[in-house]
UniProtKB/TrEMBL annotation:
Protein name: Endonuclease/exonuclease/phosphatase domain-containing protein
Species per Swiss-Prot/TrEMBL record: Monodelphis domestica
PANTHER family with a match to the protein in the record: BUCENTAUR RELATED, ENDONUCLEASE_EXONUCLEASE_PHOSPHATASE DOMAIN-CONTAINING PROTEIN
SUPFAM superfamilies named among the record's database cross-references: DNase I-like (SSF56219)
Region (Disordered): 391-412
Length: 412
């Protein structure tokens, strides 16, 4: 039986109640039962029922599927159930909560009179926090060999955050353009690139896109990307760290191929501890060296190198968002979207005020004549003058071309 419950506008919970075949059933019947129907991955999935399977308590081998509070030994149906849970990323909530066995067992064997756990409540891995308790109900009305299982869930629907495409601009190395010979090489390469593509054709937007692509390709080939000045202990010891991690990963794979081998497990644990110890020593040595270097700059009163070393270690300061008060003055807005909406509300109230000016008085004001020369496209000399007045070191526009490139082209 399957129930489809609506949780929100586009989120649902699928509840499946099942009764699994016993060990005496044919293999075809068992395989047909465990061929789960497709459920949308965004839906919350809850599987309830009698699976006639004992999953045991080997939680170390079945991490994420079983927790520490299982019971009994595993049988063939239990292995099949755990395999399916691993395939579809499900977890058995009966083994999550610590309680007495009488609150976990659900079925009594008719001959041995022993109680076993064969009825389960199964959810997805990511939804385990929704389950508050799963326990067997010890009925007092009649004595039967099967107990009901009660699960308390509190559905938490995480909000969806739409993904926006981010424009990533490449920062080019502009320092070589200070050398006149290198600048001449850059200009000649750009001339060859533009002449190889032929004359610019199409509309003004298409012409600009062709020119922009030529400039960016030449900058990437001649100037290259800008090198990051930020220093990090991990990057400077990258080769040694990769060697340690590769040895540890190799021993881990050998242990996983033979999980019952105690020597392989001990060797992996030993190499894991060694890798952690050596990496921490590398980090301590790197910081000691940097601290001595910065202290030397402070002792010699070389403040320029002192602050430069601090900046290369910690990186530039990240801009912070200044919070704003709401219109009523009671709530402090900290998120960027709320701050943007508050500024929008402020300027909307400030600028959109009713006008008290008489329109007839405005019509009597003499109008100045139109200056048609302002509508004429700028000349080459005016464009060159505007480029010379541009400040270097500023952020690039949406086209991703730095100001230094325009200045270099203006000198040709």
């Amino acid at each position: 039986m399957k129930i489809h419950l609506a949780l929100s506008k586009d989120r649902y919970a699928t509840i499946i109640s099942a009764y699994a075949p016993t060990l005496t059933s044919t293999e075809e019947t068992i395989e047909q039962f465990y061929s789960l129907h497709s459920v949308p991955t965004n839906d919350k999935l809850i599987i309830l029922g009698d699976f006639n399977a004992r999953v045991g308590q080997d939680h170390e081998r079945w991490k994420g599927l079983l927790s520490k509070h299982g019971m009994g030994k595993m049988n063939n149906n239990g292995l099949l159930l755990l395999s399916k849970c691993s395939e579809f990323k499900l977890t058995i909530t009966n083994t999550v909560f610590r309680m007495a066995n009488k609150y976990k067992t659900t079925w009594m064997h008719p001959r041995s009179k022993q109680w076993h756990l064969i009825d389960y409540n199964i959810v997805r891995w990511r939804d385990i926090q929704d389950v508050k308790i799963t326990r067997a109900m010890r009925g007092a009305e009649c004595w039967i060999d099967q107990r009901l299982v009660r699960a308390t869930l509190q559905m938490c629907i995480a909000p969806r955050h739409p993904k926006h495409a981010q424009t990533v601009h490449t920062f080019y190395n502009m320092s070589p353009l200070r050398d006149p010979s290198y600048l001449q090489t850059f200009q000649s390469c750009l001339d060859n690139k533009v002449s190889a593509k032929g004359p610019l054709t199409g509309s003004s937007t298409e012409k600009w896109n062709q020119f922009r692509d030529a400039v960016k390709e030449t900058s990437k080939a001649v100037l290259g990307p800008k090198q990051c000045n930020h220093q990090d202990w991990f990057d400077e010891n990258n080769t040694a760290i990769e060697d340690l991690l590769s040895k540890k990963n190799k021993t881990f794979m050998e242990w996983q191929n033979n999980p019952n081998s105690a020597p392989k497990k001990d060797r992996f644990k030993s190499l894991q501890a060694t890798a952690q110890h050596e990496i921490r020593k590398m980090q301590d040595r790197w910081w000691e060296k940097k601290a001595e270097e910065i202290q030397r700059f402070a002792d010699t009163k070389n403040y320029k190198q002192f602050f430069s070393a601090l900046k290369t270690v910690y990186g530039p300061l990240k801009p912070t968002t200044t919070p704003l008060l709401s219109s009523d003055g009671d709530t402090l807005i900290k998120d960027k979207k709320g701050i943007s909406n508050r500024w929008k509300e402020h300027f909307s109230q400030l600028l959109n005020q009713p006008s008290s000016v008489n329109q007839s008085a405005l019509d009597q004001i003499p109008q100045n004549r139109s200056i048609e020369q302002l509508d004429v496209p700028p000349s080459i000399e005016e464009v060159q003058k505007a480029i010379k007045q541009m400040s270097a070191g500023k952020a690039t526009s949406k086209d991703g071309i730095p100001t230094e490139v325009y200045k270099a082209l203006n000198q040709s």
